[in-house]
């Protein structure tokens, strides 16, 4: 299978950079898989799991991402994430902290649109918690 360049960047660091066979992205309109020669697209991403199938040995990495943007172009895929951590580092305590932060965002929302967006993110993180249990 053909490979393409993938980079996952957070405000703190470059978390991944290298050739991959495929990446499953939790898009805001639903999950989508990027393969070599994918059509160009820009999408927001929701809290969820990114699945990266690397070319060397075909191993897969699973990374939790809190949100951000995905840019597919002829050079490959770049994800600019608000926050991203390897799934094995997502302890129940960390997930509880994510939920508490999302609940605080719901409480701090000043208008209906902000409250709806915060409620959506809270629901997505709670779904992730169920999936990981």
UniProtKB/TrEMBL annotation:
<comment type="similarity">
    <text>Belongs to the ATPase epsilon chain family.</text>
</comment>
<comment type="subunit">
    <text>F-type ATPases have 2 components, CF(1) - the catalytic core - and CF(0) - the membrane proton channel. CF(1) has five subunits: alpha(3), beta(3), gamma(1), delta(1), epsilon(1). CF(0) has three main subunits: a, b and c.</text>
</comment>
<keyword id="KW-0066">ATP synthesis</keyword>
<dbReference type="Pfam" id="PF02823">
    <property type="entry name" value="ATP-synt_DE_N"/>
</dbReference>
<protein>
    <recommendedName>
        <fullName>ATP synthase epsilon chain</fullName>
    </recommendedName>
</protein>
<keyword id="KW-0139">CF(1)</keyword>
<keyword id="KW-0472">Membrane</keyword>
<keyword id="KW-0813">Transport</keyword>
<feature type="domain" description="ATP synthase F1 complex delta/epsilon subunit N-terminal">
    <location>
        <begin position="4"/>
        <end position="84"/>
    </location>
</feature>
<dbReference type="InterPro" id="IPR001469">
    <property type="entry name" value="ATP_synth_F1_dsu/esu"/>
</dbReference>
<dbReference type="InterPro" id="IPR036771">
    <property type="entry name" value="ATPsynth_dsu/esu_N"/>
</dbReference>
<keyword id="KW-0406">Ion transport</keyword>
<comment type="function">
    <text>Produces ATP from ADP in the presence of a proton gradient across the membrane.</text>
</comment>
<dbReference type="InterPro" id="IPR020546">
    <property type="entry name" value="ATP_synth_F1_dsu/esu_N"/>
</dbReference>
<keyword id="KW-1003">Cell membrane</keyword>
<keyword id="KW-0375">Hydrogen ion transport</keyword>
